[in-house]
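Design request, tokens follow.
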């Protein structure tokens, strides 16, 4: 896949951010990587800077919210397509048809496989939404709303410029966004053949109650 910018939000992600970046470099042709950092105090930024021959730019954001960081990252993207990737997600497979799918859908969400301390675990809780079949307008019975997870999601940049995330939300900016978009007549798509490993972190909101 060409012509893609990847936004990675970072807050003390030294354990996995190198894996995330390397998986981007392995999956795409000359990707642009935008790291939006939230005052990290560990070695994560040093790890990012170690990828010296890659197109990586780091920006720091003090007054962080998920939506604000993503909206800011989009303004720094040079390419027409955007992947939002968690700093502790590792890309495994990307469907060659992502760009074509984005002609008909506002977002393509990939399948996330939860990895708990190196082990694949039963996909309970939020992970049960990542099914083994493709879906248009994927619906979460547990949340009683349409589902999207920004740890691994593809967009057209112009879509995000025209429809930014809510900067006042402290979490789940992705769910509110996709539900608003579907209400306005757009469609989302869940591609089960586009896969990442989502690694456990102690502070990850997605992992609350797991372990």
């Amino acid at each position: 896949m060409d012509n893609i910018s990847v936004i990675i939000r970072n807050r003390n992600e030294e354990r996995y951010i190198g894996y995330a970046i390397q998986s981007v470099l392995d999956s795409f042709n000359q990707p642009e990587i935008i790291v939006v950092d939230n005052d990290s105090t560990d070695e994560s930024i040093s790890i990012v800077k170690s990828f010296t021959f890659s197109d990586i730019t780091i920006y720091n954001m003090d007054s962080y919210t998920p939506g604000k960081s993503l909206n800011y990252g989009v303004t720094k993207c040079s390419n027409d397509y955007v992947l939002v990737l968690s700093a502790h997600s590792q890309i495994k497979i990307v469907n060659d048809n992502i760009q074509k799918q984005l002609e008909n859908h506002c977002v393509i969400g990939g399948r996330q496989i939860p990895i708990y301390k190196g082990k694949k675990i039963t996909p309970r809780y939020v992970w049960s939404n990542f099914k083994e079949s493709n879906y248009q307008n994927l619906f979460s019975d547990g949340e009683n709303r349409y589902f999207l997870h920004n740890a691994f999601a593809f967009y057209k940049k112009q879509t995000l410029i025209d429809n930014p995330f809510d900067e006042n939300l402290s979490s789940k900016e992705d769910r509110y966004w996709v539900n608003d978009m579907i209400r306005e007549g757009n469609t989302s798509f869940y591609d089960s053949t586009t896969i990442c490993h989502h690694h456990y972190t102690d502070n990850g909101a997605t992992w609350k109650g797991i372990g």
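Comment from the thread starter after seeing the answer: thanks! Residues 17-27 form the longest helix (11 residues).
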